[in-house]
Design a protein that fits this description.
This protein has about 425 residues and is of the alpha/beta class. The protein has two domains: about 110 residues, Urease, subunit C, domain 1, CATH 2.30.40; about 290 residues, Alpha-Beta Barrel (TIM Barrel). The chain has 16 helices and 17 strands. Strands 1, 2, 3, 4, 5, 14, 15, 16 and 17 form a nine-stranded mixed sheet that branches. It is globular, with a radius of gyration of 21 Å. The termini are far apart. The chain binds ligand SIB and zinc ion (ZN). Ligand SIB binds next to helix 1, strand 7 and strand 8.
């Protein structure tokens, strides 16, 4: 017996279809089954009237630390170095699986409410994050953040932990969960760790999620230590490939842009985190000019401080315009692709998600234009979404054919209960310091 949902009168914002034409879309089980001007309403289980609403693919956030919602507002106005070493890492020392589960659920509430259906995460206690993903109904790529600082024993344990996560969670939750390797960065993971990860990623056909070239300090330290910039070093040790998603990529030489292009490395751009930690401005328009796949990420809620991907896209666009003094760069159409098809490509999921096409997974959101900040209707749907809207204009969120929010009401998660538990968790974590 199929579960069918008909969405009618929707303005579909698709990659090749930036038109204002009302259409209907039929969901059968977890898939988009039909898109047409009209679809027969008989025999469908549920009808959603999307009059005045823009329909687009569920958004894809390619760099998060979801459980860090617990540390939102904990330590603001600091550099990355001090923020991590003096504040975040001491707090993280007291985390456990239950705290990470509740932090991930809080993150999931925020993602669903702001229209993100897929996120790529790197953190600890990832089996518990997987449990939260399963319960919340969203889609995720999960990696365990591996750090060895050159310690061989720690290296073995970290790799084992990530492999264990792969074995226990890859394909879990009706295929909504996929597992990647998560070597934290070239400054916290040793050359031996990175080389081993490359070998295992090839063996297990797993992607790799890593932070690269986030701050100027990272570049200078890398030059001091090895005489090479981070991407030059990663290329030299044979680490790079099309399965690598590099978060940040702020400090890049022209030669490194060539290296990224040559190895088809995927970039996750995180403008709010880069601005807040004063890390710098990633040369995104230059990367796009070079046909490099640039996706979008929020980073953790503790360096952002929210997970609103529409706000992130607007920031990305405006930041490129002001830094190049060219208003034509990073248009709203390009911004939409960063959170949809480019995000899917970055995660190797382009055949499943990232666009509204028959046969793809039914990961769909509706944005209500009947809101003060979206009236009158812009001639371009993407302009109205990127420049005028924010996550709170998202009205309906569907993932894998299941409705997770309708008319701004969550259908699966109990948000008040989650807020209360998250407040209690952070209180306990602060007391433990
Ligand atoms: N197994 C590791 C866990 C690493 S999880 C990933 C780490 O990335 C940290 N993190 C969050 N945002 C950033 C960032 O922007 N740059 C670098 N690290 C970050 C986060 O706090 C967490 O410690 C360990 O034993 O420490
Ligand atoms: Zn990060």
């Amino acid at each position: 017996m199929n579960n069918t949902i008909l969405i009618k009168n929707a303005l579909i914002l698709n990659l090749n279809n930036f038109e204002n034409k009302k259409q209907s879309l039929l969901i059968k089980d977890d898939l988009i089954a039909e898109i047409a001007e009209t679809i027969d309403e008989g025999n469908v289980d549920k009808i959603i009237d999307a009059e005045g609403k823009i329909l687009l693919p569920g958004l894809i956030n390619t760099h998060t630390h979801l459980s860090m919602t617990l540390f939102r507002g904990l330590a603001d106005d600091l550099s990355l170095d001090s923020w991590l070493n003096d504040h975040i890492w001491p707090m993280e020392a007291n985390l456990n699986g239950d705290y990470c589960y509740i932090g991930a659920l809080l993150g999931a509430v925020e993602l669903i409410k702001s229209g993100t259906t897929t996120f790529s995460d790197m953190y600890f206690y990832m089996e518990d994050v997987a449990r939260a993903v399963e319960d919340a109904g969203i889609r995720a790529v999960l990696s365990y953040g591996m750090i060895d600082f050159g310690d061989a024993e720690r290296r073995e344990a970290e790799i084992e932990e990530n492999l264990q996560l792969f074995k226990s969670c890859n394909g879990m939750a009706d295929g909504r969960i996929k597992v990647f390797f998560g070597p934290h960065s070239p400054y916290t993971a040793s050359e031996d760790l990175l080389i081993k990860v490359r070998e295992l990623a090839d063996e297990y056909n797993m992607g790799i999620h890593i932070h690269v070239s986030e701050t100027e300090k990272e570049i200078n330290d890398s030059l001091d230590e090895r005489g090479l910039r981070p991407f030059e070093y990663l290329e030299k040790i044979g680490f790079l490939g099309p399965d690598v998603v590099a978060a940040h990529c702020v400090w890049l030489s022209d030669e490194e842009i060539e290296i990224i292009k040559k190895h088809d490395v995927k970039v996750s751009h995180n403008p709010c985190s880069n601005m807040k930690l004063a890390s710098g401005i990633a040369p995104v328009s230059k990367l796009i000019e070079n046909d490099i796949c640039v996706s979008i990420g929020t980073d953790g809620a503790s360096s952002n401080n929210n997970l609103d991907l529409i706000e992130e896209l607007k920031t990305a666009s405006l930041l490129q315009k002001v830094s190049t003094l060219d208003p034509k760069v990073l248009t709203s159409d390009e911004a939409i692709t960063m959170a949809t098809i480019k995000g899917a490509e970055a995660l190797g999921l382009e055949n499943e998600i990232g666009s509204i096409e028959v046969g793809k997974k039914a990961d769909i959101i509706l944005i209500d234009t009947n809101s003060a900040n979206m009236v009158p209707d812009s001639s371009s749907l993407s302009s109205n979404v990127i420049y005028s809207a924010n996550g709170s204009n998202v009205d309906t969120t569907i993932c894998n054919g299941k409705i997770l929010m309708e008319n701004k009401k969550l259908t699966v998660l109990d948000e008040q209960e989650i807020y209360d538990k998250a407040r209690k968790a952070i209180k306990e974590l602060k007391e433990a310091i």
